[in-house]
């Protein structure tokens, strides 16, 4: 009997926890459209989400980690690399979506706090493990597919090709702090593809 009661409590509590997490993530995104990172407080996020501060700290150790999680959750589908009819279109579409994400308030905030935190910080490591590494592995699979079907040269260095595609994006966002536009993305993909295509 006690086991059944415990299962009931867990089944009730779990949806509430997920609802609270969703409310916190949405509140974070909403408030970043109104406030700068420096002036946005955990108290404001908690109030907007309708939860207590303790609820937020139960899942996120600090504001930066919360914002990073909000970024990863809210942009996952937008930045996935989907196979299109050809390699060029796959990367062009994904980089256009990536540019759009980095042009948003939460995108600009995440890149800024990553740059300021340092390469050895917990935040930078989480960003690498949860975002950069998985995206890079997906992109490598697309390049390997391009090689297997004869669209890309088999002699290309996969890591160099990816650095050529993504490096300018992060350089402009992190160093130059400029917005990315469609013309730049199209020119970038055109130039890189000319060097790695078989024709």
TrEMBL record:
<keyword id="KW-0804">Transcription</keyword>
<dbReference type="InterPro" id="IPR036271">
    <property type="entry name" value="Tet_transcr_reg_TetR-rel_C_sf"/>
</dbReference>
<feature type="DNA-binding region" description="H-T-H motif">
    <location>
        <begin position="41"/>
        <end position="60"/>
    </location>
</feature>
<dbReference type="InterPro" id="IPR001647">
    <property type="entry name" value="HTH_TetR"/>
</dbReference>
<protein>
    <submittedName>
        <fullName>TetR/AcrR family transcriptional regulator</fullName>
    </submittedName>
</protein>
<dbReference type="InterPro" id="IPR050109">
    <property type="entry name" value="HTH-type_TetR-like_transc_reg"/>
</dbReference>
<keyword id="KW-0805">Transcription regulation</keyword>
<keyword id="KW-0238">DNA-binding</keyword>
<dbReference type="Pfam" id="PF16859">
    <property type="entry name" value="TetR_C_11"/>
</dbReference>
<dbReference type="InterPro" id="IPR009057">
    <property type="entry name" value="Homeodomain-like_sf"/>
</dbReference>
<feature type="domain" description="HTH tetR-type">
    <location>
        <begin position="18"/>
        <end position="78"/>
    </location>
</feature>
<dbReference type="InterPro" id="IPR011075">
    <property type="entry name" value="TetR_C"/>
</dbReference>
<dbReference type="Pfam" id="PF00440">
    <property type="entry name" value="TetR_N"/>
</dbReference>
């Amino acid at each position: 009997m006690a086991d059944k009661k415990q299962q009931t409590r867990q089944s009730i509590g779990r949806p509430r926890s997920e609802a609270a997490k969703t409310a916190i993530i949405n509140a974070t995104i909403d408030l970043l459209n109104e406030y700068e990172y420096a002036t946005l407080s955990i108290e404001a996020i908690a109030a907007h989400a309708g939860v207590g501060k303790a609820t937020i700290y139960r899942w996120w150790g600090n504001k930066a980690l919360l914002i990073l999680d909000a970024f990863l959750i809210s942009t996952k589908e937008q930045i996935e690399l989907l196979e299109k009819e050809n390699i060029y279109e796959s990367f062009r579409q994904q980089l256009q979506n990536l540019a759009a994400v980095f042009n948003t308030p939460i995108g600009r905030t995440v890149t800024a706090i990553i740059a300021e935190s340092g390469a050895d910080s917990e935040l930078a490591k989480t960003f690498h493990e949860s975002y950069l590494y998985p995206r890079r592995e997906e992109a490598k699979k697309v390049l390997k597919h391009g090689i297997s079907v004869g669209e890309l040269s088999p002699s290309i260095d996969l890591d160099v090709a990816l650095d050529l595609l993504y490096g300018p994006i992060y350089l402009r966002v992190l160093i130059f702090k400029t917005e990315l536009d469609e013309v730049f993305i199209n020119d970038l993909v055109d130039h890189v593809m000319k060097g790695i295509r078989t024709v």
